[in-house]
Amino acid sequence: MLKFAYFPGCSAESSAVEYDMSTRAVCKKLGIELVDIPFNCCGTHIVEEFNECAWLALNARNLALAEELELDIVTICSSCFFNMKKANAMIRQNEEIRAKVNEVLSKIGRKYEGKVEVKHILGVLVDDYGIDGIIRNVEKLIEVKASPYYGCLILRPEEIVQFDNAEAPKKMEELLENIGCEIADNPFKADCCGAPIMLIDKESHLKMVKKILEGASGADCIVTVCPLCHYALDVGQAVLGMQRIPVLHVTQIVGLALGIPAEKLGLDKNITPTQPLLKKII
Predict the structure, then answer these.
(1) Long-range contacts for 193-196 (Cβ within 8 Å, ≥24 apart)?
(2) How large is the angle between the packed helices 227-240 and 202-215, nearest 10 degrees?
(3) Coil, strand or helix: which one is 146?
(4) Residues 13, 19, 25, 29: is their CA dihedral positive or negative?
(5) Which pLDDT belongs to residue 265?
(6) DSSP secondary-structure letter at 182?
(7) Side by side, which strands form the sheet with 118-120?
(8) Residue 181: DSSP 8-state
């Protein structure tokens, strides 16, 4: 049985409640145990730029909590995934950094020795649980045209995240095809959506979002793996006045294939209505 320390990230308590709901529901259905631990925010790049030591310590505390339970961490947020992977690599590879971080952690009675691996929920489903296992649990094929969108932080820098081919990723396509989806390839599926700049340069952010949405034209839905990307595309198309395409978290569409009711997957909480899509599936 797979068991992980669960890091939902800050968005899971606000703009991406449905991502957390669907992840918990899918993992429960598949028998993947998620252990809740009192994690703190990963700090994102903002804290790193302000104070690298504080940023490292924030991530090290999370890693230490998982290490104490002898568990790897799984997260649903690409930004959190990147931050924890980067911090973990820095702590493991540099003795001086590790010593400084553990000096900070000692003030709260903790220590991190670098034994934890950081995983993303998509990687857990495809690589750890496995496509064959997913197929055995499928109760209904999701015969819609789905456009995968990865964004940037789950893929880059490739030498840090070590997740998939940064320019031509395939994990999500493999998963979606095996639950019955037809893939509507988006040439911009690995481009940044500009979510980090949406509050400081709205015009540039919306230009980036528009390009991605146009790349998904003709699809029945867009499938994302990051709560910030999801928010950017889900809200962005309304702001831009574009034709509405339902934007689903990857665990929402997998959950439908596993026979989990739509309400338990939070499909009523998405900004863009999902009812037209559900009518094609249910």
Answers:
(1) 193/149, 193/151, 193/228, 193/229, 193/232, 193/233, 193/236, 194/232, 195/228, 195/229, 195/231, 195/232, 196/45, 196/228
(2) 90
(3) strand
(4) negative
(5) 98
(6) E
(7) 33-36, 3-7, 73-75, 118-120
(8) P
Contact status, residue 102 vs residue 111, Cβ threshold 8 Å: yes
From the CA atom positions of the chain, what is the Rg in Å? 19
Predicted confidence (pLDDT) per residue in 65-122, tens digit: 999 999 999 999 999 999 999 999 999 999 999 999 999 999 999 999 999 999 999 9
Question: C-alpha distances in angstroms, 128 versus 1, 2, 4, 125, 199?
Answer: 10, 8, 11, 6, 37
Any residues with CB less than 8 A from the CB of 125 and at least 6 apart, and which?
26, 134, 175, 250, 254
CA–CA distance, 248 with 144 (Å, rounded to integer):
12
Q: Quick one: average pLDDT of 45-60?
A: 93
How confident is the model at residue 282, as a pLDDT?
Answer: 75
Instruction: Using the Cα atoms of residue 182, residue 140, residue 18 and residue 127 in order, give the sign of their dihedral.
Output: negative
Among candidates 224, 97, 73, which has minimal Cα distance to 149? 224
For tokens 């959950």, name the residue: 255
**Average pLDDT of span 135-151:** 98
pLDDT (average), residues 58-71? 98
Q: pTM of this prediction?
A: 0.97
What is the rounded CA–CA span in Å between residue 275 and residue 279? Answer: 6
Judge contact between 206 and 169, C-beta under 8 A: no
Residues 179, 184, 188, 189, Cα dihedral to 10° = 0
Q: What is the pLDDT of residues 93-108, one digit of tens each?
A: 999 999 999 999 999 9
Tokens 């952690």, residue located? 105
